[in-house]
Specification:
With about 150 residues, the chain is mainly alpha-helical. It contains eight helices and no strands. Helix 2 runs antiparallel to helix 3, helix 3 packs antiparallel against helix 4 and helix 4 packs antiparallel against helix 5. The longest helix is centred in the first third of the chain and has 15 residues.
Length: about 150
């Protein structure tokens, strides 16, 4: 997460809303806005799980996979029984081309109760492991138990 001093700040001036402030806001896309907004929330409340989840997703969208990975690891550490936290961590590992970690973490997500196999089979984040026989075995094994 960028330090507060490196965050872009809107031009100051009297008469809000001024054209320069509106221009600044118009040049930012939704993900950039959310990264800044959630970053400010996390600065005051670093363990806000829902915001951490959203921030990790936005960081990944921006291609900042290692930053997203750091947040996902923090979430799994704080919420070790949360299947969605494990699933998201598995996705980050898969995006980073770390298949062994992705598959171990995905298995843990399923063991904890993650059961959206249809989504799992279509999730582009898992593309790098989908053809791995361990992935197919995992889905097959747990679909039977469903």
């Amino acid at each position: 997460m960028p330090s507060p001093s490196k965050r872009p700040t809107p031009p100051s001036g009297e008469g809000f809303p001024s054209g320069s402030v509106l221009s600044f806001l118009a040049d930012r896309n939704q993900v950039d806005f959310e990264l800044d907004f959630f970053g400010r929330i996390l600065a005051g409340n670093p363990d806000f799980h829902e915001v951490l989840r959203a921030q990790a997703s936005n960081l990944t969208t921006k291609g900042r996979l290692h930053d997203g990975l750091t947040i996902d690891k923090k979430l799994v550490s704080a919420r070790p029984d949360d299947p969605t936290a494990h699933y998201n961590l598995a996705c980050r590992y898969a995006l980073l081309k770390q298949p062994d970690l992705a598959l171990v973490t995905l298995r843990r997500a399923v063991e904890l109760g993650y059961r959206d196999f249809r989504y799992m089979e279509e999730d582009r984040d898992l593309e790098s492991i989908r053809k791995d026989p361990r992935f197919r075995q995992l889905v097959k094994e747990y679909r039977r138990k469903k």
